[in-house]
Design goal:
The protein is of the alpha+beta class. The protein is built from four helices and three strands, in the order αβαββαα. The chain has helices spanning 3-7, 24-34, 53-63, 72-75, and strands at 18-19, 38-43, 46-52.
Amino acid sequence: MEIAKLIAGRDPAEIIHCTVDMKVRDVVALLAEKRIGALPVMDGKMVVGIFSERDLIYRVAEMGETCLNRPVGDVMTAPAITVSA
C-alpha cells in the first residue's frame, strides 16, 4: 500500500511522529503504545530523520542503556530520504 493513500485526507496533527528533543525512552514507549516500528522525526514542520526499532538496537549495542536518556535527534537515522508524489 502506498504511504500517500494511508495519509490522504488526514489532518497532519493526527500523524504520529516525534520531535528531535524527545528522549529515546519516551519515543520507545510511543512505538510500543502504538504498536509501530518507526516514527518520522520532526524539527518544527520539517521531517529531519526517522527513528526505528533498528536504530534502538544499534544504539543499545553501541552505548548501552545510557542511550535511553539521549534526545532522539542524537540517535535517529538522518537525513530523511523523501520523494515527491
